[in-house]
Model the fold of this input.
Amino acid sequence: MRAMESLTAVNGTQCIRFREKNASDTIFITIFNGSGCYAPVGSWGNYVGVRGVSLLDSPTATCMITGTVQHELNHVLGQFAPQTD
Done:
């Protein structure tokens, strides 16, 4: 997350800033150990609530690779691009 913040800074100004959720936030990201690596793309209309990011981490498989984590976080921020390997 911090790498994404610094990589998207323009003239010293952050374009993305991740922070802890506070009580007044109506849309927020929750990261959980799910069944794979996935996240919804952005939010639509008057959506309120959780935007879940699944980052599987198990003894046999993991999403905990910098590029994969950043890919899923970009989805939840509204960017859509298929992952290429």
About this structure: Helices lie at 2-7, 66-76. The chain has a mean pLDDT of 89. The two ends are 21 Å apart (CA to CA). The beta strands are 27-32, 37-38, 49-55.
